[in-house]
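Schema walkthrough. Field components (list of strings):
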Amino acid sequence: MSVSESSTKNISISLKASKTVTNSNTEKGRFKRIASRIPGPLVGLVAIFVLLSFLSPYFLTQNNLMNVLTQIAPTGVMAVGAFLVIIIGGIDLSIGAVLGFSSMVMAWLYKVEAWPFEVSLLVGLLVGALIGFINGILATLGKLQPFIATLATMSAAGGLSVFITNGNTENGFPAWFDAITQSTFFGIPLQAFILVGVFLLAAFWLKFRPEGRALFAIGGNEEVARLSGVPVRATKVMVYTLAGLLGAVAGLLVTSRLDSAQPTAGASDLLNVIAVVVIGGASLSGGSGSLLGTFVGLLIIGVLNNGLALLGVSSNLQPVVLGLVIVAAVMTDRKASKAQAGGH
Amino acid sequence: MAETNLTSTAAGLICKGLTKSYNGITVVENVDLTVSPGKIVGLVGENGAGKSTTSSMIAGLVQPDSGVMLLNGEPYQPKSPKDALDNGVVLIHQEIRMVAGLSVAENIFIGRLPRKNGVVDTDRMFAESAEVLGRLGSKIDPKRIVGELSLAAQQEIEIARALSRKPRFIIFDEPSSSLGDSETQRVFEQIIALKEAGAGIVYISHRLDEVTRLADSIVCLRDGKPAATWNTGKVDHEDIVKAMVGRDFTYGHSKPAEAQDEVVVKVSGLGRQGVFDGINFEVRAGEILGIAGLVGAGRTEVVRTIAGSDKATTGQITISGKPVTISNPRDGIRAGVGMVPEDRKTQGLLLARNSMENMTLPWEKKLTKSGLVTAATLSKIYKKQREDLDIRGQAAVAVGRLSGGNQQKVLLAKWLIERPKVLILDEPTRGVDVGAKMTIYNSIRQLASEGVAVIVVSSELEEVIGLSHRILVMSAGRQQGILDRDEATPETVMKLAVQGHGLTVSLPIIRNN
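Field assembly_structure (string):
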């Protein structure tokens, strides 16, 4: 009995050992290991980039690439908020509606109520943060599932933005405000700096600040985080509030670019934002993902939409391509993480 | 592996040499069990003795690595619970598994709803459910939603579900653990009725008086191996306890160093409504207090309250002479209480993160330099812990991929980064190998000698007796006594652990047949 048992054990050990040998010593194994470290989305981005460079002569011009950066800036700012929420294992459906609502509040205060512009702008940002805060309270103290909580606030914020100006758009903002989205530095649009700045700030927070680092713990296993003394509820509320604030920032960018606040702005961005985060490799069940991945996901969507437009593909077909990319990205990502887990 | 040659054509369920191991750890080894129609076999043993694994193999939940099972002379190799059911073998779980949103009848017939013309024949389903419940003497309405019913009622439904399959062999795994006296009485009547109707029954329980009164024979397991078999139910409890615990101590625990005089933690009248009650003890600096008891005795619940994982409803905790209110884990950490929880995979570790991230999680606020948590600070701390506790495995690897022993060491290290005043360890060596066990024992002794007040909850008697200065024994949510190291033997501890169930039900007298 015991003899046969130990011999089977030996076999399994030697099998394992031979596996590691092939993995680490042969060229193929090494290549595989290195390849599995490169994030899948990045490979996809490079492939799309190369492909489009061949298909369209205009694609690889500075003008066009800067154009891409400007187009993706609001989505990207929102994606950072969505990413933070997804990391803690939540979801924020209201982020697009917050974009429209905060922009409308600002425009309404400034144009209709004749408040000073700076104050209106500040209130617009605060309103975004407030909706996020409400999301956080509903999801923690209210014990609602985040999907439901943010579905409700999405609906309410969407309704309110139409209600306050009776569905009218408000046009005409101070020149300095419009300039935010028109200025460039060294040939690079200011919006791109804002976008990258938001990503860097968030990445810094997630890497170096205790509260930010705790996000991964909460998303990974809330009970472990709680038993380790992490203030789970407070952190969650903070994250939803931040997401709301970032939605409002995106609203300002859109308003500045169009010189116009539109009640339905942002409503169609929600799925793009979530797609960005998912393509970037974050898990919707929380606890894993990187902002770098999200940034790559953002570039994929930006480049793809731009490329399809350059190639004259009907804009109605763009969502179809987006759907295919989501499936492809998540499937390759899952394969990669399985390979990394070493068959466990 | 010599195949056991069984030529028996005897009626009944015969298991020979059942063996099962997980990840190289043998949990059941060479267990024999014979269940004859119309007889009850009592299966007893300590926590982790292999009772549940054995019954899972018989019921097709897991497949044995080796061994033979015969059912009425035919080879019997159930591949799934359904397979076992088709052969007339059913396991009634200790934990109730019901779909809360469905009706009683739907739960009874789940997976095999009776059909008529392609739709569910609800009339027949309700009628048959009522019939089987009626046989149990239960008055539960089959149309009620299960979620609205009490635990005891759900246990009855669980039994009804098993009976509706008309099984010939039934395993009851601790059926009375969630039941009150009158429900227990009803369950016993059922078991006896089943026995008289010719079913073969395996009855698993910690409550020895139940076992000795019901069983026709008793099998005792210890560390996964058969420890004793009696061909009668009339066995002295003392003898059973001896068989349950009488093992060689393999670790040669030395007497721990003398404790200091200063009382670090004092618990008075601690209770949590409906869970446990009236807990009083103190632990001095350098002292190791063991908490022993059977599963469900309330040991984990007590220490969770001290660490702040759950809130106490009554009582007072004093730490270093100061009364403290600990209503969440943060309060506990602030008061100097660290706890290595029972289940490292769901409560202790972030399996997807690496060892360093896991260890530093509770302390990151304190580890900041000019507001920042830096890799340099963390890796310095990590390296020290890694050395102190002999943690192996790559630093960058997700903790979930380390061995059980290394996982447990990481979890222990997590609570030692800032030396706690009180360190609670709940099952500190569950599922770890011998080497890691020794390291963990040494660290516990080392910590105590440095003046930490240590509380160890363990189901392993050897561990709890070997490590502790004193042992608090719990049973049924109450403190049954505190034994000094000199008076603590497996027998004295187990005796306290099995008492106090206050079995007031009068068991029906079983006819001898």
